[in-house]
Design brief:
The complex is a heterodimer of chains A (303) and B (226). In chain A, 67% of the residues lie in helices and 10% in strands. Chain A has 2 domains: 175 residues, no CATH class; 108 residues, 2-Layer Sandwich (Alpha-Beta Plaits), CATH 3.30.70. Chain A is an alpha+beta fold and 303 residues long. In chain B, strands 6-7-8-3-9-10 form a 6-stranded mixed beta sheet, sandwiched between helices. Chain B has a 4-stranded antiparallel beta sheet with strand order 2-1-4-5, with helices on one face. Chain B is globular. Classes of the chains: A alpha+beta (303), B alpha/beta (226). At the A-B interface, helix 1, helix 8 and helix 9 of A face helix 2 and helix 3 of B. Bound molecules: adenosine-5'-triphosphate (ATP) and magnesium ion. Magnesium ion (MG) binds next to helix 1 of chain B.
């Protein structure tokens, strides 16, 4: 107990003494961790969009009504047999209906008046080799319709084929560029934050070199000397993390939530999505503290 | 208690501070280390504290080969058995007399009831029972040195190392400090004191080890300065 009290008191005194430097370190940690969280949220948002648009499949084969069970079994086996196909999942009308309702749950008006029979049943196909997409259209005898640009098929029971490969590629490219761009800035600021935290620790140790000298002289262990500084670094990083998490929630409430309902087809991140990235922010903060602690107190490692 | 065996200390810059020095000091002895400036007195004390390592030779303190001690546990433990007093007192200006002394126990993890019992006791012992709440800059040099002796002794060390403890004090105050060190010695603490102070060495008539250019040139019981 006494030891904890000692560390706590030393840490508080350290941060107070180091006021401006500690502030600079904390605000940089805050900005860095915020950007890091933002990159994760952007990636999450674009994944939601991809899922909304494509249902995470590359090709959808829609079946015409009425759907006959023997046609379903036969076509599924045949599609599965194609070398280009990795997996085929059958989605019946109820499942399609449920997925649409879930997708637009933030905007129930869209799906409210649509009866489930209206949704087409489909095969949702993932390709093993996306360039071999032609195998599917050839097998089902599909042709692009010159007027509607739909790909309609002559195979009995098949209505049309939707090819999501292009849009998937584009969305993934956007994700990559946006996420990696923000991630890059995040990493650079995380490094600055680490250096700043390390520097506050070093300045703190320098300011207290006389005390440290006496501690050594009377036989305080290395850890006893270092731990207050390590805690100080951890506290600074965690304050930055807390501010970053709060700010991400504020962004969600004041930016994302304002968009909700305006663009009906656009699924938006929810509180749960922000919550899901907080562990990563805390891990990044701990990383900053550990690295800063290691380089900040290295000079004082020897007794 | 203390044993230097054929110790040579060469600093990184090539200065040979000690050369083939062998010294044996028994438990409870009071020893002066004298010699001209640069003769290796402080280096000797730093070796005992394991602030420096000998280049060759062995150093034993309280039965432990100090060269073999690890910085994780062994060295701190050694230093808990050694009190240190310096010419410049090394007190923390933003702490009171009480806090300066309690700090030494606090940072080695002593419980509060031990601190509350021992600190006033030792401050009484050195004659500062009335000045617990003063700050160092409110004290005379002699009083500050008493605080530093209290800090060195509060953990009841086996050995007290003093590097020119009277270097900053006038002759009368120096005599008071020497009485105090003698008192600490009388309760069984081994005292090793490096000094330039001829009057004190001559008055005390203790064992004198004289160094010159890193070599022991004289080791005399009940000796004088030169
Ligand atoms: N850290 C160091 N690095 C290099 N050389 C040192 C170091 N400390 C001491 N020396 C050298 O070692 C020699 C012995 O120094 P030491 O401090 O032991 O002498 P001393 O007897 O205590 O002298 P004084 O009476 O002036 O305090 C001197 O020549 C000094 O310059
Ligand atoms: Mg000296």
């Amino acid at each position: 107990m006494r030891r904890i009290e000692f560390y706590f008191r030393e840490t508080a005194a350290g941060i107070r003494r180091n006021g401006i430097m500690a502030f600079a370190a904390m605000s940089t940690a805050f900005i860095a961790l915020f950007l890091f969280g933002l990159a994760l949220i952007i990636a999450r948002e674009i994944n939601l969009v991809i899922e909304a648009v494509t249902g995470n499949v590359q090709v959808a084969v829609y079946l015409s009504d009425p759907v006959r069970p023997d046609t379903v079994t036969r076509l599924q086996t045949e599609l599965q047999a194609l070398p280009a196909v990795a997996s085929v999942e059958y989605e019946n009308k109820d499942e399609a209906c449920a997925r649409a309702k879930k997708l637009f749950e933030s905007n129930p008006a869209i799906t409210e008046n649509v009866p489930c029979e209206v949704y087409p049943a489909s095969f949702r196909v993932t390709l093993a080799d996306t360039s071999q997409y032609g195998q599917i259209t050839a097998r089902l005898a599909c042709e692009p319709d010159p007027t509607t640009h739909d790909i309609t098929c002559s195979e009995p029971g098949v209505l049309k084929v939707l090819d999501f490969r292009d849009i998937l590629d584009r969305l993934s490219a956007i994700t990559r560029v946006l996420r990696n761009g923000v991630l890059f800035i995040a990493v650079v600021t995380l490094i600055s934050a680490t250096v700043l935290v390390a520097n506050t620790l070093r300045m703190g140790m320098f300011a207290r070199r006389k005390e440290i000298g006496i501690m050594r002289l009377v036989g305080a262990t290395n850890w006893r000397i270092r731990v207050p500084f390590l805690i100080e670094g951890l506290v600074e990083a965690l304050v930055g993390a807390a501010l970053a998490i709060i700010t991400l929630f504020l962004v969600k409430v004041f930016v994302v939530d304002q968009l909700r309902g305006r663009i009906v087809w656009l699924p938006l991140i929810r509180n749960g999505d922000v919550l899901a990235i907080t562990p990563w922010i805390l891990i990044a903060a701990a990383g900053v503290a550990i690295v800063a602690g290691t380089i900040g107190i290295r000079r004082f490692l020897d007794v | 208690m203390i044993s230097l065996q054929n110790v040579t200390k060469t600093y990184k810059n090539g200065v040979i501070a000690l050369e083939s020095v062998s010294i044996e000091i028994e438990k409870g002895e009071f020893v002066f280390v004298v010699g001209p400036s640069g003769s290796g007195k402080s280096t000797t004390l730093r070796l005992l504290l394991r602030e420096e390592e000998p280049s060759t030779g062995e150093v034993f303190v309280a039965g432990k080969n100090v060269v073999r001690l690890s910085s994780l546990g062994g060295i701190p433990k050694l230093r808990r058995n050694i009190g240190c007093v310096f010419q410049d007192f090394k007190l923390l200006q933003d702490k009171t007399v009480f806090e300066n002394v309690s700090f030494a126990l606090e940072v080695i993890g002593k419980p509060k009831h031990v601190i509350d019992a021992r600190v006033p006791e030792i401050l009484d012992y050195v004659g500062l029972g009335e000045k617990l709440n003063n700050y160092p800059d409110e004290l005379s040099g002699g009083e500050q040195q008493r605080v530093s002796i209290a800090r060195a002794c509060v953990n009841r060390p086996l050995v007290l190392l003093a590097d020119e403890p009277t270097g900053n004090l006038d002759p009368n105050t120096s005599v008071d400090i020497m009485r105090l060190l003698d008192k600490v010695n009388k309760i069984g603490t081994t005292v090793v004191m490096a000094t330039h102070d001829q009057a004190i060495v001559d008055a005390m008539r203790k064992r004198v080890i004289e160094l010159d250019r890193g070599k022991v040139v004289r080791d005399q019981s009940r000796g004088v300065y030169s």
